Amino acid sequence: MLDPTDPITDPGATETPAVSPTPRVGVLVVAYNAASTLAATLSRLPASFTERVDHVMVCDDASTDDTYAVGLAVKEASPLPITVVRREHNLGYGGNQKAGYAWAIDHGLDIVVLLHADGQYAPEEIERLVGPLASGTADAVFGSRMMVKGQARAGGMPAYKFVGNRILTSFQNRLTGAQLSEWHSGYRAYRVDALNDLPLAAYSDGFDFDTEIILGLLAAEKRIVEVAIPTYYGDEICYVNGLSYARDVSADVVRHWANARGFGGGISSTETDTYALKEEYGSHAVLLRWLCERPSARVLDAGCFDGRFADLARQRGHHVTGLDRQKLDGVAQRVDAFIEADLNEPLPLALQGAFDVVVAGDILEHVVEPHSLLSELTRALRPGGEVLVSVPNFGHWYPRGRTALGKFDYDQRGPLDRGHLRFFTRDSIEALIGNCGLRITDRATVGTPFDMLAAGGSRVRERVASGAARTDRMATRVWPRLFGYQFLYRLEVM
Q1: Distance of CA 149 to the CA centre of its chain
Q2: This prediction's pTM
Q3: Which residues of the chain have pLDDT under 70?
Q4: What residues make up the domain containing 391?
Q5: Fewer Cβ atoms within 10 A, N terminus or C terminus of the chain?
Q6: Which tens digit of pLDDT belongs to each residue from 12-23?
Q7: Is the CB of residue 481 less than 8 Å from the CB of residue 493?
């Protein structure tokens, strides 16, 4: 049994702990005006489960009835290890869960089950949700009312809720690539270490919290398992406004979809540093085309990251040396040589006069002093060599619009990439080029990579993305300062 003096799990742990052979399982009971159902709901927990449950936390979210008093009475009469808390102010459905999960994390539970006090989700099924978590085969388990055909309607789910559930679930699966049978069940169990990896505090306090937690699990590549549960609709009061709920969860999923593709503010704690290659119409295609105009050159790829662009250059007959601050996995197989160096510091003297081409693709915006870096890279050229540069356009309509609306923030990628330290317009990058003693021999502008938005999508999405890309490329030719996503330059020493 837990009490407030129990030690807190080591907050400095960096590795995901395995669930113990006999995991500590807790139940978070969210309750609001549930005085008439709370006792009956808890009494329906299977004896085989109550004998080994570590703790039950009943969280009364500032109810206006006797929910708290009923909870205390159950605690006195039940052998269950129960703690009953009453929120002084209503935290909301999501806020109540967040407080409960913080308690589970602080008290070292391995597994926590979300149980609604109104009895709509069968307590008798709780062990089926815990099983995959206890065996270590899942990070989250959702009870689904939609897995068995016809069961939801037979259990009393109103037709309008059934249709809305199916429509929203299909929409959410389509945009996220998930294959859940239901996004809208409130019967869930989680590994506590998986919850600890999510930015729960940033999630909604409302009913769309459950959707946001799914999006967080998907982004963090956690394992989600569904189990079929019976559907029950009684005379419990529903506090969810269906239209507002549909609007909120749809907005959450669209925002998630957009953020994953570099649009929308904020930084998720689960994002990765994977760099997207833009081979067909984007900047990398232009850089490779310019490289191909030189036969078998010695190339320095400054800021080579994982070496995938370098590998494409090698496939075209070039000898490529990668340069970056750290040697990532796989780089050795994609470059001919690698030099580890901080691009914010003076570069090794051995680089001077060693290369026919220096590629500075999407790197000047990531350093503190782009003038110093570009000058140093220029010194790495052999006589007759050239520098190939690409930078994002801060004058693009997207950052312009965000700034005009007072919503300037960093994104996962794109012109407002979270790693950008400097921002360029066409005038400012061309001024920098001239100040470094370089002359522009060729320039190009590429538009927004709408083609990439269709990745993994349906044919309809592919057609829409393809149409948007064609329109954008046309607009980029007409007004490059506004529609240009990136500016690219071929440079030689003056």
Answers
A1: 32
A2: 0.64
A3: 1-21, 234-241, 261-281, 452-458, 460-461
A4: 283-493
A5: C
A6: 333 444 444 689
A7: no
